[in-house]
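User: Show me a protein chain along with its predicted structure.
Assistant: Here is one chain, sequence first, then structure tokens.
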Amino acid sequence: MSEAQGSGARGFPAFPARRGGRARGQSFWAAQWAEAVEDVWPEEGPLKKGRSFARTGRIGPITVSPGRVAAEVYGGEETCTTRLTLTVLDDDEWDLLWEKTADRPAETEALLAGDLPEDLLEAVEDARVRMLPGYGDLDADCDCDALDHPCPHATALAYQLSWLLDSDPWLLLLIRGRAAEEAVEELKSALLLRALAGDEEEDETYEEDAGEETAGGTAEQPDDSLQRAAYARPAAPLPALPPLPEPPAAPEEPLTGIEADPLDRLAADAALRARELLVHAHGFGTAPPEPLDVWQDTVRLAATHPDPRVAQRLRTGCGRPGEDLDRAAAAWRTGGRAALDVLEHPWTPPEQQTARARTALATAWEAEELPPVTVDGNHWTLTGRDLQLRLGRDGRWYPYRRRDGLWWPAGPASTDPAEALADLTGLADDM
């Protein structure tokens, strides 16, 4: 597999339930996709069931990757995984497609500008490759027990993909093995090779015809506008988010010989802030993180400053009970601003997110071993054990333990509720 074919997957949130309306996407590429799917799977019965199921809101987040579209489907208490698979184009097929595209200035200019033109289909046909699904090319797989093939879950997923194509038609290229930025870079390379070949041909022609030029004549310059436009495009997107740094291990004696050396704490705090900015840069959240308010900055200082005298001064001057500041600082150490929000602001997660968490717990635990859990919004409390998990808006599960009538952060967060619950109950058993 080439590096381009190894492009990472892209995830999209689940579509809410729809009442009526068209099950097919509205845009050109969405309509082309839906029409091709219906040609490959012509039986109206499964297609009709799929259109109905697509509107129910029971299909979870969709993952699109080279050669594969997948989602979890929720049917009452049962959950199944549905996958659509398509053939990924090899490197030679992509090279031929960009050569045929480079023959079409209008389509080339549109692609470099970030648009997927309708006439690209003509270049696809010239290259004799597949962009839309065809016979023997599209297949479906699902964990359900439906007798139809494809099952309603698979056809529903195919229709929902057409909804995604309404806003991002470049997903058609990703399914075939190229992310948008990779496709544009390969087209630029094809244009550059063509320009270099053209320069060599012109040099040879000039050498042959140099003696025939008139004294007042001027040589015609090649048109390199497309090449200039190609390399004027913006840089590729940022890389994947790095993981949060591990809490620094304090040496037994300060390395500098000074009683309080804050550099390691300040570096960890700077890493947390940088991660918040990267989260926004990658499209999570509609606005960049706001500056810390007075309380948040007070908590940050209390959590990260190594000198205990600083925390004591903050307790005295913050205007709130010292225990509030101690709990907030403990939360900050487990995940910064996001963990502080989990401590102070309860919220109600979407129903599908709660259902997925229940499924994950039921899958990971035997029924007789799963502790009884009471769910209240984003708080999942282990009945009678003074232990609790809290789901943050960042999708991470934060462990809590009751102490003196108050809930205190009990350790680092996890993206897996089953893992977080196992760590939490194990922590309680060790105490």
